[in-house]
Amino acid sequence: MDDMELMRSADLYGVNYDTGEEGFNLAAVMLLGKDEVISRIASAYRTDVIVRRENLDRYDDRLIVTTNLIEAQAQISEFAKRYLPDRFMLEGDQTVSPRDIIIRELVSNLIIHREFVSPYPAKFLILNDGIHTENASKAIFQGQLAITSFKPVSKNPFIAKFFRNIGLADELGSGMRNLYKYSKPYSGKDPMLDDGDVFEAFVPVRWVEGNLPQDGMTAHEETGHDPNEQGNNPDETVNKTDAWVNNDPDNPNIDPNDPNNDLETVDDFATREYMLLRLIHENPAITYRQAAAILKISESTVKRTFRALRNAKFIERQGSSRRGSWCILPPSKHVE
């Protein structure tokens, strides 16, 4: 089978029955065409891939993709893998990466089920709360999609067929099922999908390791549900060794020579402060429990460190104790 026969079998070359002319269709151009040909036929076609986690006014990194869909799928996927944390899970005796499967499904949907002549650019956004995708769509159903009632419709059947044949997509509807299947082990939460003139998908991301929130709670809500805690206020009184750690060895309640007091050296404490600041930078909504699990120390020690950082004006709490987050303050605010 030569190249032309392959193009015909993939429905990328055929006859226009209105004019009788033969030639390549739009699917062929978008799948395999050169960039200059694509820009002439679909001048508005592009995909913006943006990482915006630190520089919220602009972006941390950006990729603008205007190449054909086969190359675009590889470029977007590799870019996303550089910035998204990877975790593994077992399926039987096989190890799989939920991250890689989620990226594949989001990118394939972004590429296959879009309107190529629309001026609305497709977007793949990596933000602090997770992955967002947007693309122009001719929607049959308007509103949020539910896995139990979703009826998939192929919007670009020739492109979808080509992607299935080369192994970059599965049967119609499998993408949504895979997102629901792998989002929970990846982030602890379900994805959200909305169809309309713009199709939007959202998959949460858990940026740091630690225990998953329980019973559907968000990460910052977890703090308020610990039965071992006396209260939910980050300013609450913690272990009596606070005074010693905060350079007050004259406190009469503290005996620095008593091994039961679990005291630590200045170097140990400074290292832990630095590590905790990095965790807050990566996840401003991190809880005491999550930080303790990651640093492999007790919750009382974590609370002590939070309190010290707050007293020294390295961090401050924004919002409520249950639904707020931590903010790292600039050096000009620090207490010497």
Structural write-up:
- The protein is α+β, with helices and mostly antiparallel strands and 336 residues long.
- It folds into two domains: 3-204, Heat Shock Protein 90 (2-Layer Sandwich); 219-333, Arc Repressor Mutant, subunit A (Orthogonal Bundle).
- Helices cover 35% and strands 17% of the residues.
- It has eleven helices and 13 strands.
- A seven-stranded mixed beta sheet has the order 4-3-7-8-11-10-9. It has a two-stranded antiparallel ribbon with strand order 1-2. A two-stranded antiparallel sheet has the order 5-6.
- A hairpin with a 2-residue loop joins β10 and β11.
- α9 packs across α11 and α10 packs across α11.
- The longest helix is centred in the C-terminal third of the chain and has 17 residues, at 266-282.
- The radius of gyration is 26 Å and the shape is elongated.
- It starts with a helix and ends in an 8-residue tail after the last strand.
- Residues 218-228 have a biased composition (Basic and acidic residues).
- Residues 214-264 are annotated as: Disordered.
- Residues 246-262 have a biased composition (Low complexity).
- This is Transcriptional regulator.
Question: What is the compact description of this entry?
Answer:
The protein has 336 residues and is α+β, with helices and mostly antiparallel strands.
Note the main attributes of this structure.
336 residues, alpha+beta, Heat Shock Protein 90, Arc Repressor Mutant, subunit A, 2 domains, 7-stranded mixed sheet, two-stranded antiparallel ribbon, 13 strands, 35% helix, 17% strand, elongated
